[in-house]
Amino acid sequence: MGKRSNEPFLWLLFSAGGVFAAMVIPILLFLFGVAFPLGWLKAPDYNSLLTLASNPLARLFLFGLCMLSLFHWAHRFRYTLYDGLQIKHLNELINTFCYGGAIVGSVVAAWLLWRFP
Amino acid sequence: MAAPTEYVPKTYRARMSTYWWLARRPYVKFILRESSSVAVAWFVIFTLIQIRALKHGADAYAAFEAWLQNPLLIAINVIALFFVIFHAITWFNLAPKAMAVRMGGKRVPDILIAGPNFAAWIVVSAVLAWFILR
Q: Does A88 touch chain B (CB under 8 A)?
């Protein structure tokens, strides 16, 4: 018997993050990254945005979005480096960078969203 | 030839060019699709900075909004938006290939599986926009 693989678990996170990212990120990035800064739409004022983001369900949603999206990135980016640049010999370094980055980002997200404001 | 190691097998393998994925359009599309994950990661960083600014008070948030108007940042966000939309479209189109549903001995047409995904995308986007803009 070979070593048990983490692959199915990582693939599950990749896949869940892929769905979440596809459904949610385009509209949020369009509004906050493009439409509001360019003045196409009126940005919500500070207090209403704070009220919205303070809601426990919104915070849980944001945490899930950040965590799953990061693991989606980690898995996909890791294989892009493998296949695209063929740098398999840097295996451990890439894994540490990708999954380590996803874990650090998730902890930062949890820490930021735990208490509000 | 280099000594065999864990990642360099003894059997001969021709070394592919590092830029193999530029050779054909579908390869380029594949690499661009996979690269969309970088835009996803950028969005998370962006969101974390935004949440931090929101928690630090109205002044900090105003500074964050001013920072977003920087042309460089707008350019980054437009490119990232292109990539996340590309990710969404390719992801939903992939769904029928990942789950080949059979009913009554026949395979359910791709459009019946991809379609609801696209419909859900529109609904989710509309609901989020409503929460933010109301």
A: yes
